[in-house]
Amino acid sequence: MFDRFTGKFIRKIGHIGTDPEGYAKDTWGYITFNIDDKMNRIYFLGWDNDMMVYDFQGNYLSKVKIENREQYSLASSFFLVDSLHIYGYEKLHVQSNMPPLYVIDVNTGETKDIRGLYAEQIPIDEVINSSMTLGNYIAYGGHFSFMDFQGNKVFSYTIGSPSLWEIDGKVRIKPDYNDTIYTISNDTIKASYILNLGNKSWPYHERITTKDYANERIAINYIFENKDCVYIHFCTDLYANTYSGSEKTFVAFYDKRNKTNCVIKGDNYLDTANNQEFRIRGLSSDGYFYTLLSADKLSDNLKEIMQVDDDSNPVVGFFVNK
Questions:
Q1: How far apart are CA 79 and CA 93, in angstroms?
Q2: Residue 14: which of 57, 68, 78, 73 has the closest Cα?
């Protein structure tokens, strides 16, 4: 934990380990965690389909144990945590007739399905190869995974790409391979926004397809929403990008105040006042877009203003909507 305004180190919270209070890391050393900023709690992914709960002071509080079913696999789910619930979206759908969206009561551990989100079972018996790339720009935080299938077909998924978020007390979900943003209400979902992608739309039933077909479609990588706008990061030529490094990324801003759209080629911006390039990396708990920059990537102007050098800690920048 670091101080938001000074950047000073505050404390380390918890530890990796198989002891009763230890949390897990994956094969690549990544730690999965979610923050409840209302109750000041952190939920770390554990080793046995469970979550280890700590407070911001670094104290271990409890463990939330989840029913051990493939549908509720925490290792392949993206989460949103609030003070009462853990919402989970299981992205690698390997079990038939089971909704991929569910909610967990943080106090009792009771798990309920959320109906209405269509999902087909992945035909695991047709998989030829599975692989992963790390640090790719379209894979939010890394973990961009592939499955090669019989018939020269391929399927990709990114567990860590944001799919669930909360705005004005409402919980949203943007499923993979779907043009609709839904709002979760009373254990069901209803459409809130439909993204009009025309003939570039990538329908769900074509998610396992040939690379040529996929490269003609728009792949939506992740979405951030605050009270004023919706930020959408997407790409074309998905597999060409991944295998050749050809970058064809875009971002779109939907202004909810005047209902206008703006699409920008690429995902790097320039702060002309400080001659600083940056990329939006996320949304803070109080609704500000932010970027993360290593100190050696700062412009000379910002280094002077902030009195940092190349060996200083990374810098977080927040942006106000105009």
A1: 15
A2: 57
Give the length of the chain: 322
Q: Which of 235, 272, 233 is nearest to 254 (CA)?
A: 233
Closest Cα to residue 16, out of 26, 1, 4, 6? 26
Q: What is the 3-state secondary structure (H, E, C) of 132-160?
A: EECCCCCCCCCCEEEEEECCCEEEEEECC
Rounded to 5°, the CA angle 122-124-127 comes to 110
Give the Cα separation of 234 and 152 in Å (integer): 24
Per DSSP, helices labelled H in the chain are 211-215, 238-244, 300-306
Burial 265-279 (b: 16+ CB within 10 A, else e): eebeeeeeebebebe
CA–CA separation, 98 vs 294, rounded Å? 43
Rounded mean pLDDT, 281-308: 89
Quick check: 95 and 113 in contact, CB under 8 A?
Answer: no
CA angle 51–54–60, rounded 5-degree value: 100
Phi/psi region, residue 152 (left: phi>0; alpha: psi -120 to 50; beta: rest), is left
- Buried-state track 37-54, b at ≥16 Cβ within 10 A, e below 16: eeeebbbbbbeebbbbbb
Kindly compute the dihedral angle of the four CA atoms of residues 298, 299, 301, 307, in this order, to the nearest 10 degrees.
20
Smallest CA-to-CA distance from 288 within 298, 300, 296, 280 is with: 280
Alpha-carbon Rg for the chain, nearest whole angstrom, is 20
pLDDT digits (tens, 9 = 90+) for 128-184: 988 776 554 554 555 678 889 999 999 888 888 889 999 988 999 999 888 899 999
Round to whole Å and give the CA distance between 153 and 211: 7
Q: Strand 111-113 relative to strand 101-105: parallel, antiparallel, unpaired?
A: antiparallel
**Are residues 302 and 274 in contact, defined by beta-carbon separation less than 8 angstroms?**
yes
CA nearest to 213, candidates 227, 202, 198: 202
